[in-house]
UniProtKB/TrEMBL annotation, chain A:
Annotated Transcription regulator PadR N-terminal domain residues: 8-82
Originating organism: Microbispora hainanensis
Matches recorded under Gene3D superfamilies: Winged helix-like DNA-binding domain superfamily/Winged helix DNA-binding domain
The name this protein goes by in its record: PadR family transcriptional regulator
A Pfam family reported for this protein in Swiss-Prot or TrEMBL: PadR
UniProtKB/TrEMBL annotation, chain B:
Organism: Microbispora hainanensis
Keyword terms: Membrane, Transmembrane, Transmembrane helix
Highest taxon, organism lineage: Bacteria
Transmembrane segments: 89-115, 135-156, 225-246, 266-288, 300-318, 324-349
Name of the molecule in the record: Uncharacterized protein
Length: 123, 365
């Protein structure tokens, strides 16, 4: 699953949203890092709809403009959860390894310090 | 109506104009909500932003979506899928052709620079002293077409991104190693024309394969075969060129004038000459296949027809200034290319009409 697809699905978890609403929510969720262009957004929506992960919810006309809302399907929610668990597992493993590395470095530093202390001490 | 409303009306009209890039059926379904999304985005654009023109990145995203929809993959409407397959086949045929050229150039590089024998005539002897930067640059330039082989190999193994990156590198690296002659516009045009036969398959590769139409991953053995055959054909051609050169040199030594003959023969072994021969061969193959009941040559014929266009332009664009045998050979090549191109289009369109009358009915009078 690509990052834009992941973020679009996440944007639809709490409520159905229309095209621009999804783009805005994706920007919020990514901390302003991902700006989905309209062509890109609809490409992602097409793929997610083809997979049955999102579907049209309702249509509204506001200020003479059509807004079509999209909602997350149960299948889409399952796919998103699987992906989220996979990403969280990856992140957890990365953090564990980094802590281990940090610990090893600290241990090595202390050991080296003690070794140097003994070598430089009185005979 | 206020000035602001006029501006917004103009902006909306411009957005709609760009949305016409999308297929009509898609527009019927999505245009209104896409315009609404565009206009919402424009309303919230930062102050001072030129709100009468769609932003460039927005246009690029619509163009990319239009390309993906028009060059569809499996599951797309028949017309879009057919065009998608045609463009993907054009990319594949182009890669096979350029991999053959890579084999030829690599073989020639070995013969020219690797063997210190005088087997080749003066015209193809390496430029620059051995171990000089010029020599290294030219050897590298002769070997860079192997990037096309990398691209073909990656595509055969289903790695579209690597294939695309290698094809772009195959286009760019030679221009860096041997900068094009840009002193006069005629030279620049000639150079641009000669580059077209490589640019078109690269563009077909970049646009034809996308998320909805990934390349199939061939089994390792078949992928190796797909790569080895054109490389071997190219190496064989380089040997033929080498032998031809040696024979001409021997003939000249014996007092038989053969330089003109050599030049004419070489013109069939360079990129444009080989493109003429290859496209004529594909046209004949398509014509034979077209006559066999139950076998369609449509997509291959149309794909080859796409590749014939840059080959014709390359041949025609590099002809000014030619005289004598060179001009005659180039004219013959141009005739072969044009005839092959026309035959391929006719076979392609006929095959499509036979396969699905609905696909071409709209264009029929």
């Amino acid at each position: 699953m690509t990052e834009p697809a992941f973020l679009v699905l996440t944007a639809l978890v709490d409520e159905p949203r229309h095209g621009y609403g999804i783009a805005q929510e994706v920007e919020r969720l990514s901390g302003g890092r991902v700006h989905l262009k309209i062509g890109t957004l609809y490409g992602v929506l097409d793929r997610l709809a083809a997979d049955g992960w999102v579907e049209a919810d309702r249509e509204e006309v506001r200020q003479g403009r059509l807004r079509r809302y999209y909602r997350l399907t149960d299948e889409g929610a399952r796919a998103l959860e699987e992906e989220a668990v996979r990403l969280a597992d990856n992140a957890r493993r990365a953090v564990e390894r980094l802590r281990l590395r940090q610990g090893l470095r600290q241990g090595l530093g202390q050991g080296l310090g003690q070794g140097l202390g003994q070598a430089g001490g009185p005979a | 109506m206020s000035e602001r409303d006029d501006e917004r009306g103009l902006l909306e009209e411009r957005y709609r104009r760009w949305l016409r890039l999308l297929p009509a059926s898609y527009r019927a379904e999505r245009e209104e909500e896409m315009v609404a999304a565009f206009m919402d985005g424009a309303r919230r654009a930062p102050a001072g932003h030129d709100d009468q023109r769609p932003r460039l990145l927005e246009i690029a995203s619509v163009a990319a979506l239009a390309l993906r929809l028009r060059l569809g993959g499996p599951g797309s409407p028949p017309g879009a899928y057919l065009w998608g397959e045609t463009v993907r086949l054009a990319a594949l045929l182009g890669l096979v052709f350029w991999t053959t050229i890579a084999g030829l150039y690599a073989g020639q590089a070995v013969l020219t620079y690797g063997i210190p024998a005088d087997a080749l005539p003066d015209g193809v002897m390496g430029i620059g002293d051995p171990e000089s930067p010029d020599r290294a640059r030219l050897v590298l330039a002769d070997l860079t077409p192997l990037l096309w082989a990398v691209s073909l190999g990656a595509l055969a193994r289903g790695r579209a991104r690597t294939a695309k990156a290698a094809a772009v590198a195959a286009l760019v690296v030679p221009c860096v190693l041997v900068p094009p002659p840009m002193t006069e516009w005629e030279n620049a045009v000639r150079w641009a024309c000669s580059l077209l036969p490589a640019v078109v398959p690269a563009l077909a590769l970049l646009t034809g394969f996308h998320r909805a139409a990934p390349p199939p991953r061939l089994p390792a053995r078949r992928a190796r075969l797909l790569l080895a055959l054109p490389v071997a054909a190219g190496l064989l051609l380089s040997l033929v060129v080498g032998v031809l050169g040696a024979a001409t040199r021997a003939a000249t030594r014996a007092g038989i004038p053969s330089e003109e003959l050599l030049v004419a023969a070489w013109m069939w072994a360079d990129t444009t000459g080989l493109a003429s021969v290859s496209l004529a061969a594909v046209a004949v193959w398509c014509a034979l296949r077209h006559r066999t009941p139950g076998r369609s040559a449509g997509p291959v014929a149309l794909a080859a027809a796409i590749l014939a266009v840059p080959a014709v332009l390359a041949r025609a664009g590099t002809m000014p200034g030619m005289t004598g045998v060179t001009f005659l050979t180039a004219t013959l090549q141009l005739a072969v290319l044009v005839a092959s191109g026309i035959a391929l289009v006719v076979i392609g369109v006929r095959a499509l009409r036979a396969a699905d009358p609905g696909l071409t009915a709209l264009r029929a009078p």
